[in-house]
Amino acid sequence: MVDLIMCPLSYGADKAGLEHGPTQLMGRYPDMANRIRFISVARKPENFSSSNLKFVNTIASTCAIVAETISFSIGEGHIPILLGGDHALAMGSIKGALDHYENLAVLWVDAHADMNTHETTHSGNIHGMPLAALMGYGHPKLVNLHNAGRIDPAKVVLFGSRDVEEDEGKLISRSGVREYPYEKILKDGFKESLDDALGYLAKKSRYLHLSVDLDSMNPVDIMGVSTPVPGGFKVNQVIDLIKKAVMKFEVTSVDIVEYNPLHDRGEVTLDTMVMLVGILEKLLADRYSV
Ligand SMILES: [Mn+2]
Predict the structure, then answer these.
(1) How many folded domains does the chain comprise?
(2) 289 CA to middle of ligand 1, Å?
(3) Domain, as residue range, for 124
(4) Residue 34, pLDDT score
(5) How far is 238 from 235, CA to CA, in rounded Å?
(6) Residues contacting residue 254 through CB under 8 Å, at least 6 positions apart
(7) Separation of CA 86 and ligand 1 centre (Å)
(8) CATH code, domain with 222
(9) CA of 31 to the centre of ligand 1 (A)
(10) What is the tens place of the pLDDT at every residue in 213-258?
């Protein structure tokens, strides 16, 4: 069964609005209180004189709680879906999954690469660093939160990137992460690119963590994000991606993050998020019902 885990972390993006996401989501699940774990942000004192790792203590301690929660959920035989909150939370969810699956593959669906470190970042915002940190690049407070586990760059696909900084591009090449930039997906075709990406990962592992940043989708349709980038996937393409991923892998855990209700139009983004969760619940229930 699926566990919904919500955390209103916004310090990784340092933008107002993300902290309201989980409250909005909770309103959509009135009868599911016993299946939702709500993780409060664990505020810690910070050193504000250094600005290349904003709110690092708060983020690391919150992600450590997320990791424990995800690890517990998987240990119970459940599939946790983390709903955020900013993408820094994936440091927690993936670290938690690594407790059980050290061979884990990761499909990172995002407009951004999230491959900065404290040494390359321009903004200091940690939601631009989680993928690097999970592979061991970056500050020890992030790299070593919860456990010393790492994801192997050879088992990571970055899918749909369309706003990648120069230093991030260098780390993508140096580390060996497989990148499918949005422009290339447009040229090669969505279906072909997706099949290629999943086939590549399937050769490496049968266990998959799926991390979906809502800004992977076109902000014309999905406005309720913090860092919109022109272009991006249609909602139906992300649904196809989810379906194929669940059919091909044992999906251990999922993130759907960066929902910012302050930027939403009506509740389109919220509706989409709830729909994606519903599709995942149904698919995972069918897949593991036997
Ligand atoms: Mn992201």
Answers:
(1) 1
(2) 32
(3) 2-287
(4) 75
(5) 5
(6) 79, 80, 81, 82, 209, 210, 211, 212, 280
(7) 8
(8) 3.40.800.10
(9) 30
(10) 999 999 999 999 999 999 999 999 999 999 999 999 999 999 999 9
